[in-house]
Amino acid sequence: MNNRFDNKVVIVTGGASGIGLETAHQFAAEGAITVIADINAEKEAEVIAAFKERNQECIYYHTDVANSGEVQRLMNTVIERYGRIDILFNNAGIEISGAVVDFTEEEYQQIMDVNLRSVFLCSKYVLKHMRERSSGVIINMASVASFLAWNNDALYSASKAAVKLLTQAMAVEYAPYTIRVNAVAPGIIDTPMTDRAIGAISNVAELKKIKGKIHPLGRLGLPSEIALTVLFLASDEASFITGAILPVDGGYLAG
What is an example of a GO molecular function annotated in this UniProt entry (predicted)? Predict the structure, then answer.
């Protein structure tokens, strides 16, 4: 096993399940000091146990990453404890499907808070620190929906399109400080969030097969495939990559 991230301090938001959890495991496996920030306090014991099963360690902070005060406390606590933050993976996200006319204003705000505001807040408060050190990497969670509009998913698509442009703007703004900012744009991935999105359908397994066929490769993506892409973007192997929005989509955008 490579140790590309030996003693690097990494924060993964929304790290209690799905892509976030798998990415946190992969960072820990390569030597990182892995910090999970998640709104779900009840998941803490389960997540720590999962790390122990793999002979890994993580630090779990119950954090609402759409709350400015909580984000500032998270960043300050990590810096006080470890002296720095090397890598931030803005992974936290939600999907609420529906027609525009059917969305409530509260649902609109919830999607924008979790998918966009959290990226802004976490980046804002970590960039102040990274700028002082002239070093750091941020990876954001975009989506193929940031390139193409999805039917009955207007607000999710809009939030991810905003993440895409925010990523590129931050990449240009902070390149002079040797800070790299990129994003991954997954297709449909086999995660608990996908299960929740299709949970109203009686035959979930069959619907997953249908959704998998949307990708030219003919299947859903795996959390590990997104995680390994995030690790590549965070590593020195990607030292000349910034402002990229990297599709990991089984060929979805190609065709």
Answer: glucose 1-dehydrogenase [NAD(P)+] activity
Q: Is 216 inside any structural domain?
A: no
DSSP string, 60-124: EEE--TT-HHHHHHHHHHHHHHHS---EEEE-------B-GGG--HHHHHHHHIIIIIHHHHHHH
179-235 pLDDT, tens per residue? Answer: 999 999 999 998 766 666 555 444 556 565 666 678 899 888 999 999 999 999 999
Calpha distance 59→137 (Å, rounded): 19
- The strand pairing partners of 246, in sequence order, are 184
β partners of residue 13: 37
Asked if residue 179 lies in contact with residue 138, where contact means CB atoms within 8 angstroms, the answer is yes
> Where in the chain does DSSP place strands (E)?
9-13, 33-38, 59-62, 87-90, 136-141, 179-186, 245-248
Mean pLDDT value across residues 58-74:
98
The tens digit of pLDDT for each residue in 13-55 reads 999 999 999 999 999 999 999 999 999 999 999 999 999 999 9
- Domain of residue 109 covers 9-187+222-250
| Global pTM value | 0.93
Find the helix or strand (DSSP H, E) in which 48 lies.
helix 44-53
Q: How many domains does the chain have?
A: 1
CATH number at residue 99: 3.40.50.720
Question: Does 156 participate in catalysis according to the annotation?
Answer: yes
Residue 131 lies inside a defined structural domain of this protein: yes
Which of the following is catalytic: 156, 174, 177, 252?
A: 156
Nearest-angstrom CA–CA distance, 255 and 251 = 6
Q: How many CB atoms lie within 10 A of CB 108?
A: 16
